Amino acid sequence: MDQQKRATIADVAKLAGVSITTVSRVMNKNYPVKEATRKKVEKAIEELEFKPNLLARGLIHNKTQTIGILTPSIENLFFSEVVKGIDSVIKNKGYTTFLCNTEGDPEQEKLMIDNMKDRSVDGIIAINPRTKNIKSGYYEGISKQIPLVIINGYNRGIHCNYVLNDGEVGTYEALKYLYELGHRDIVFLRGRHSYSYDVKEDIYRKFCEEFKLEFDEDNILIIEDGNGLEAVEQSKVVVEKIIRENDKVSCLFACNDWMAVGALKAAKALSISVPEEFSIIGFDNTIISQITEPSLTTVDQNMSGLGQISGNRICEIIKDRDKENKKIIIETRLIHRNSVAGRL
Amino acid sequence: MDQQKRATIADVAKLAGVSITTVSRVMNKNYPVKEATRKKVEKAIEELEFKPNLLARGLIHNKTQTIGILTPSIENLFFSEVVKGIDSVIKNKGYTTFLCNTEGDPEQEKLMIDNMKDRSVDGIIAINPRTKNIKSGYYEGISKQIPLVIINGYNRGIHCNYVLNDGEVGTYEALKYLYELGHRDIVFLRGRHSYSYDVKEDIYRKFCEEFKLEFDEDNILIIEDGNGLEAVEQSKVVVEKIIRENDKVSCLFACNDWMAVGALKAAKALSISVPEEFSIIGFDNTIISQITEPSLTTVDQNMSGLGQISGNRICEIIKDRDKENKKIIIETRLIHRNSVAGRL
DNA sequence: TTGTATGCGTTATCAT
DNA sequence: ATGATAACGCATACAA
Q1: N or C, which end of chain A is more exposed by having fewer CB within 10 Å?
Q2: Which nucleotides of D are covered by protein (CB under 7 A)?
């Protein structure tokens, strides 16, 4: 194999007949260099195809132009769109991303963060981190060591930089929409572990109170795995069950589109037509909401925007590490498609 | 902010009252150290929470325990599952991944590879790279500089390490399945730029010859963007058109599931029932094939396996850089679901 | 304007 | 068994 070693700054210096320092100056354009020597150096650089070793540079500045991104699962549509949003903005600022999967395991999460610190990333963005690690103060501690932005996670009293979609308003609007269409018995479907589910359930409960809906604890359905095909399967099971057992329920609010798909399949299995006989509303506005039949009415939370804002935010914090913490909230928007209709 | 600097090996040495070298030896366990001193050092390490700086280490060994992954688009289901497969195997070998999006742009692709080289990744896995860059010999050149594995890309005469799914066999089996069900006029739907589409079209043409099907160039449909929601839209348009114009066609082979969804929507729009009146077969077996109604008969190419094998392969090459190039082919499998039926 | 020397945090070589 | 010192490739304070 060719294995020809990469040229170093010393090689360039020798070829150009100048000192290492001069080459460095030409590279970084941070000190004046005589035009003639600059030409010489540039020629040498080109000839040797010299490109600086970013490791060496990082060692000196303790900066790597790298942002670590933590995600529970890259194969999940929600997260990949957020990642794309992040990528699109930080790329322009010369950063690249270091992506890690946690599989939703709190311990993995910590391990991965350690790994990133070892690799001297300049900042970390944690997408949907486990509530447990936020509450315990773990992330607050990390936040003091290294620039950190948390997406879709939050806890009062824990000081970090947060970027959140407004799950509260989104949920409220969706529920109100159903209410205005005449629905009174709304099933609520959530996954077990996530801050975002907690928020939504909270709103659901308050909503029932506010609108004096007959509240039934059994109308709150919980599945284990929140994102992906398993969520579809699990949701199908629990939704089928409740429709069979409670003939009053006329609609369902799902905490994400996967669950909504499961509900769709449950209705299909029971030969109940959506939306004519049963309405379903999803959350996230992932691509699958446009693929299903009928297409899903859902709450858009601007995932790409979520990523972009987080990307910008992390860059700000990196630049000025003493910036005070902020909680940025992104608006949601109800997307009307074909899975919701008025109550018969 | 706390900003307390990370402890270095020197801090540990001082605290333990030994030399830097000894600490290094304790860390790496590669030289004998007296039990007593080892204890001392370990205690100091713990106390200072010392973790070695991977950048410094990388600078010496010119290794970073990092694998760069190039993907046209992380938000695409196909790629994210492959990435997950890669991740799952290399993680155990102490590597982490460096992920880059190319947006399918050949120039971006080169830029990203440069970037990875600058960051001294130990190896690169390129998923669905642009044919152009393979043909031009660009990747062959890279392959000589750094361990490289190409997933789902190939060109005869270009020497690289390839991992491919057997698109030929998969396509052939799908077509034969349709044929055996009585279909004779099969529409072929592909995207414009990708090796995998070329392979499939090639098989399609040969298949028509072999089975003496009346060949019609118009039955080959081409859309621009191959992956994602755009593909759905574009496919819908062209499929609607051909169904309207050619009443002989009774089924369609799509080069991926997105396109198949588009075809599904086209049929729906024309009130043609699938599979009773029109059969559709997809490719990839992404999760969407289980979400659509009807669910999609499709060709599974074991995306996770594709990733795992590539992960193992890159590790092999890294360990022994003089290993000869290999072309590894993964089997595909037809998944029977509900979008295909016999010809009326 | 340019060059010398030192340091970033580690590991490897050579002594002792 | 342990330690001093020279690399790794680059940037910069200081000198000239």
Answers
A1: C
A2: 1-5, 7-13
C-alpha B10, offset from chain centre: 43
Considering the entire predicted model, what is its pTM? 0.88
How does DSSP classify residue B228? S
Contact B315, B150 (CB under 8 A): no
pLDDT bracket for residue A1 (50, 70, 90): very low
Question: Beta carbon of B59 within 7 Å of strand D?
Answer: yes
Mean of pLDDT over chain B: 93
Is A2's CB within 8 Å of B64's CB?
no
Sheet holding A333-335, edge to edge: A220-223, A186-191, A251-254, A279-284, A297-300, A333-335
In B182-318, DSSP assigns E strands to 186-191, 220-223, 251-254, 279-284, 297-300
Secondary structure (3-state) at A166 = coil
pLDDT category of residue B227 using cuts at 50, 70 and 90: confident
- Across A239-274, b (16+ Cβ under 10 Å) vs e yields bbebbeeeeebbbbbbbbbbbbbbbbbbbeeeeeeb
Distance in angstroms, CA of A20 to C1' of C6?
A: 14
Closest nucleotide to residue A22 (Cα to C1')? C2
- Say how many C-beta atoms besides its own lie within 10 A of residue B289's C-beta: 25
pLDDT tens for A14-27 read 999 999 999 999 99
Cα distance from A209 to chain B (closest Cα, Å)? 35
How far lies A193's CA from each of A105, A112, A223, in Å?
11, 20, 9
Q: Which residues of B touch A83 (CB under 8 A)?
A: 74-75
**CB proximity under 8 Å: A 1-20 to B:** 1-4
Contact (CB, 8 A) for A181 and A279: yes
> Residues 208 to 237 of B: which have CB under 8 A from any A CB?
228-229, 232
Q: Cα torsion at A233, A235, A236, A240 (round to 10°)?
A: 150
Q: Would you tell me the crossing angle of helices A303-319 and A77-90 to the nearest 10 degrees?
A: 40
- CA dist A158 and A138 (Å) reads 10
Domains parsed from chain B with CATH numbers: 9-52 (1.10.260.40), 64-166+303-330 (3.40.50.2300), 167-301 (3.40.50.2300)
C-beta atoms of B59 and A64 within 8 A: no
- Share of residues in chain A with pLDDT > 70 (%): 99
Q: Which long-range contacts (CB under 8 A, 24 or more apart) does A7-12 make?
A: A7/A48, A7/A49, A7/A50, A8/A50, A8/A53, A9/A50, A9/A52, A11/A48, A11/A50, A12/A41, A12/A44, A12/A45, A12/A48, A12/A50
Per DSSP bridges, beta strands B297-300 and B333-335 are antiparallel
